[in-house]
Structures are given as structure tokens and as C-alpha cells.
Amino acid sequence: MSVRIQAEPFDLGAEANAFAAAQAGAGAIVTFTGLVRDIAGGLQAMEIEHYPGMTQKAISAMVDQAVLRWHLTGVLVIHRHGRLAMSEPIMMVATAASHRAEAFAAAEFLMDYLKSRAPFWKKEITATSSGWVASKDTDEQALSRW
Amino acid sequence: MIDILYFAWVRERIGLPRERIDTQAATVNDLVAELSAREERYAVAFADRAALRVALDQELSEFSAPLDGVREVAFFPPMTGG
Which of chain A's residues have a Cβ under 8 Å away from the Cβ of B54? Predict the structure, then answer.
């Protein structure tokens, strides 16, 4: 189980391959990657702020919960902070299990919790303005299914 | 003494990322009232408490929570990770 909070970019393919190589006996791996998307007005950059003391702890607690709920052979979470350009990977989650249902469920659980319980805040910057991304009610509601 | 941290637009409205203050506030609500009475920028930042979240010693908490033994309080908008 690994949680990494970093400013540096990561190589999705290399991370996925290294993760897969470490999952002896697993039959299924799910990976999800979130990218910086364009917005109306043309995104120039995204600034991601986080709460350094809390971020690692909060995400590790989510991973602990996932491990209690599903039989997972491995979990990897990488989340970046700082200034990112359009289309850059922001974060990734990888889960490994014997069967796909558990790997999918654990990845969705982790994503739902990362969205609204990990202390990150995104700011979108265009040529003429900047604004904090608002949280969505649907993100909060998504937690109720777990 | 207690450390208070601000993130995202809360940090921008108050104009600083963190400060250390001496307070007798018993709960987070009391602390918010005390800060809001201090200066307009705090009152503006704390105007809509429903739009804010609070963490005590790096754990999400409630505005009604007591501050006994708490060393670090953080105020921020709802999180937008992922």
C-alpha cells in the first residue's frame, strides 16, 4: 500500500507497470487517472493547494478502510500539488485484487473519498481570470453509497 | 497558544496562510466569533459557515467541537481533490 503526495509529474505507464509487477497472485488491476481538463475561456494552468500535514494521513486512512472492506493485494495512490498544465495527470489510483469486482469497487471508493475528503483545493487559471473550483453536491452524495 | 491555518479562498480572504494566537475560545464556533469580531477580513471569510470546513489537529471536525488540548485548527472550503 503506497500513498505519494508530490509536486513532480509521474509517468502513468511506468507507475502502472511497477505496480503490476509487485502484485504476485493478483488477477485484476484497475487504474484510474485524473487529468487537468480544459474549461470555457481556455485553461492556462491549474494550481493545486493542499494541507501538507493532513493530506498523507487522510489518504492513508482511506486506503486502510479500502483494505478492510475488500481483499486487495495492493493499492497505490499518487496525487500532485502545485502548478499543472492542461492535460497533465493530476493523480492516479491503482488497486489490485484476485477478481475485478473488488479492484473496481475499491478504486471507486478511493476516488469518491479523494474527491471530497482529501485536503486538496484546485484553482483554474485562464488568460483573464482565476477561480477556485467549487465542490459538487454530487461528490458529497457519492459517499453515501459506501 | 493555538496555530490557525487557512487554505484556498479562506487564506486569500484573510490574507495569510497561518497564525498563532492566544485564545480562550472553548469551541470552534467561539473561535470563529472571536476572529470575526477582530477584523472585517475575518468576518468576510467566516460569513457563511456552511461553506467552510474545519480540521482539528489534522482531522476533519465540526464547528461545535471543543478546543480542549487542540494545537492546530485549519479552516478551508470543501475539498476538491481527485
Answer: none
User: Measured between beta carbons, which residues in chain B are less than 8 angstroms from residue A135?
Assistant: 77-80
Q: What is the pLDDT of residues B12-23, one digit of tens each?
A: 999 999 999 999
- The average confidence (pLDDT) of chain A is 96
Residue with cell 493478483: A26
Percentage, residues of chain B above pLDDT 90: 100
Contacts of A115 in chain B (CB under 8 A): 79-82
Nearest to A33 by CA among A67, A99, A102, A84: A84
- Asked if CATH classification 3.90.1170.40 holds for the domain at A2-145, the reply, yes or no, is yes
Q: Kindly identify which residue of chain B lies nearest to residue A36, measuring between CA atoms.
A: B82
Among the partner residues A120, A123, A134, nearest to B81 by beta-carbon distance: A120
Residue A135 sits at the vertex; the CA angle it makes with A133 and A141, to the nearest 5 degrees, is: 155
| C-alpha A13: how far from chain center | 16
Catalogue all structural domains in chain B, each as residue range(s) with its CATH number.
2-76 (3.10.20.30)
User: For B13-25, b where at least 16 C-beta lie within 10 A, e where not — what string?
Assistant: ebeeeeeeeeeeb
